[in-house]
């Protein structure tokens, strides 16, 4: 099955998510959604012991500053308003392992939508268990269960399995799409991935002037990835 690797941290992954749902809704229903995140030390060790490796390389400061400008431009092109979140001591297991729990209950997509909206439209800290608990309540699942996912040994083991999938598919960044032996990295590769799957995209609506005025990088480095 074709796969979409997404990260709740990454602004490019958020943009690809919006493009996928807005322009290729049928394809979004057909493909498998898999999370990508930077593992903490314990999960990184467990991944290594399982024979896997985390392939992502942190970006330079110059690239980070470029991303701030680039994402703003891409958001404006799509008519999206956004707020840059500020990540203070982030623990990415919190939202991504919560996704695994929500997905088991058939609410994975709903959690992704709520988390992306919280992070990129409202600038909220989705690594805060209290935020994740609220998102769970919002989508109709046990918020407390989602909030404790990062400390649940069984869920953490499931997370290592998800990290191994990243290693096997050679995922070094997001968004990342896989179809057979073909790999597509980046939001601009979504049309090629969709075309190979026979999906016809819905034309993008031009951005409204009011949205163009609201879009801003707010002058600081948020949580890019």
Automatic annotation (TrEMBL):
Q: Identify the EC number(s).
A: 5.99.1.4
Pfam families recorded: DSBA (PF01323)
Q: Which residues does UniProt assign to the signal peptide?
A: none
The active site lies at 10 (nucleophile)
Quick one: where's region Disordered?
204-225
Q: Which chain regions cross the lipid bilayer?
A: none
Family of this protein: Belongs to the GST superfamily. NadH family.
Question: What's this protein's name?
Answer: 2-hydroxychromene-2-carboxylate isomerase
Please report the organism this UniProt entry assigns to the protein. Catenuloplanes indicus
Kindly list the organism's lineage: Bacteria, Bacillati, Actinomycetota, Actinomycetes, Micromonosporales
């Amino acid at each position: 099955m074709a796969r979409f690797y997404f990260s709740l941290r990454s602004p490019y992954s958020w943009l690809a998510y919006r493009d996928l749902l807005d322009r290729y809704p049928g394809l979004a229903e057909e493909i498998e959604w898999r999370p990508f995140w930077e593992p903490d030390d314990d999960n990184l060790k467990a991944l290594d012991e399982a024979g896997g490796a985390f392939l992502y390389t942190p970006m330079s400061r110059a690239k980070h500053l470029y991303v701030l400008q680039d994402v703003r431009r891409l958001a404006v092109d799509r008519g999206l308003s956004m707020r840059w979140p500020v990540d203070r001591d982030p623990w990415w297991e919190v939202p991504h392992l919560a996704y695994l729990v929500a997905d088991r209950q058939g609410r994975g997509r709903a959690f992704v939508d709520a988390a992306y909206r919280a992070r990129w439209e409202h600038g909220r800290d989705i690594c805060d268990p209290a935020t994740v608990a609220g998102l769970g309540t919002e989508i109709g699942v046990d918020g407390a269960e989602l909030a404790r996912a990062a400390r649940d040994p069984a869920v953490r083991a499931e997370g290592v399995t998800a990290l191994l999938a990243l290693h096997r598919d050679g995922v070094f960044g997001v968004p990342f799409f896989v179809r057979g032996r073909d790999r597509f990295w980046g939001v601009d590769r979504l049309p090629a991935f969709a075309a190979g799957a026979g999906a016809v995209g819905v034309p993008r609506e031009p951005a409204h002037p009011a949205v163009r005025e609201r879009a801003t990088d707010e002058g600081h480095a948020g949580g890019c990835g």
